[in-house]
Amino acid sequence: MKTPALKLRATYLTSDGSGSLYSSADYASATEPILIQDIRTETLSFTETGAPRYLTGKLVWQRSTDNGRTWQMRDEWRLNLDQPDSDRPMSLGSFLLPGPNVVVERSIIPSGFPISNVTMKRALFRHSTDAGLTWSEWQQAIDSRPGYNSANWAPGIVVGQLGGVCDGQVVLEDNHTALMGFTIREPHAPPEDISARAKEVSSYVICGRAVWNSQARKLDWTFSEPIKVPFPIACGGCCEPALVRLNANRWMMTMRCQGDAKLNIPSRRMAAMSHDGGLTWGEPFELLYDTGSPVWMHASFHRFFHSSRTGHTWLIGNFLPGPVHGQTPRYPLAMAEIDLNRGVILRDTLFVIQDQPPGAPTDRRYTNFGLYEDRLSGELVLLLPEHPQHKNYSEMTEPSDYVGDCLIYRIAL
Asked: Does residue 2 lie within any of the structural domains?
C-alpha cells in the first residue's frame, strides 16, 4: 500500500492576537465544488478568583464556490462580554446528505438559545437545500418514536437532569442516512468512581441515526441505549466518540477515556460494536493494534477518515508509544490504517503528521482538527489550531498569552 505523503503544511488562518483559531469545512453540494466552513476564535479570560476561562469570542461562517480557493462571508457572531453565557453558539461543523442534496449544520446552542447549566444542553440542527445560501430554523434532535419530546429527547434523557452534545463523528449509512455519536453529561459520577476526573465531569455516549424526511423536510431521529465505560476501566466515563463502518455491515464506536495517575489507571481508547445500524451496542472493549497491544492515546480528540480514492480507512489522533494517565502530551499527531475486517489498527502503517517542533512549549497541542477529502485531488485536508504558541497554560496571566494560528495539512494517500 502507498505510504501517505505530506504535500502541504502551512498557516491557513493567522490569529489577530485575540485568541486561538479553530476551523472545520465540508462540501455543501453533491454536484458542485461548494464548501462551507466555520472559523471559531477561542479566547482566554479569568474569573474573579483568577481561574482561566476559555470562551468562543467570535464565530464566522464562510462559503466557497471554487473548492476553497476563495471565500465569501456568510455570517458572523461576536461574544457579548457583559453576558458571556447568553446567546452563545457553538458550531460543530456540517455534513452533506448527497441523496436529497441537503447540507446539515450541528450546534449545541444556537444564537438566541441561552443556557445556565450543562445539563440543559440539547443538540440542534439546521439544514440548507441550496448549498448553504439560506438555512432553516434550528431544530432540536428528538427521537421520532412515540413518547419522546423536547424535554425527553432520547432514551433515559430528561432535560435538567442530563445534557447532550453532538460532538461525535458523522458517517453516512447511505445517501439519505447519517449516524453520529453524542456525549451525554451526567450531573454526578457513580459513587464507585473515586478518580479526580469524576469530580470534574462524568459522561457516556449514545448513537443517533438521522434519516432525511423529504416530505417533512427534516431529519427523523432514532437514538440508541447508552454506551458506558465503567470505573476503573475509565475515569469519569467516556466522551467524544468517533465512528467507523466496518465490513459485514458492522459499526464501531471508539471513545475517549481518561485515566488517573494516583490510581495508576491509564487513559484508554475504548470501542463498542453494533450489528444493527447503531441501534444496539455490545460491551466496550479496548482498541488494539494487529499485534494485540493497546492503541495508546491520551484522553483527547480522534477521528476516522475513509478515502474514496483508495478504499482504505485511517484513524487520526495523538498516537503514543506507551500509556499516560491524563490528557497530554497532544503530540505527535499521526494516522494509521484500520483493518475493516478485524477492527484493529495496523501498527506498521503508522505515519506521523506533526510532532513537537524544537523550542515549542511543552503544552503545545496538535488536536481538535477539522477534516475533509478534497474532491478534486483526493487529498486528506486537516485544519487545526497550533497552540499555545509561546507559553504553557500555567504561565498565562493575560488574555493575550493565549494565541494560535490555524494550520492546514494536505496529505496524499
From this structure: no
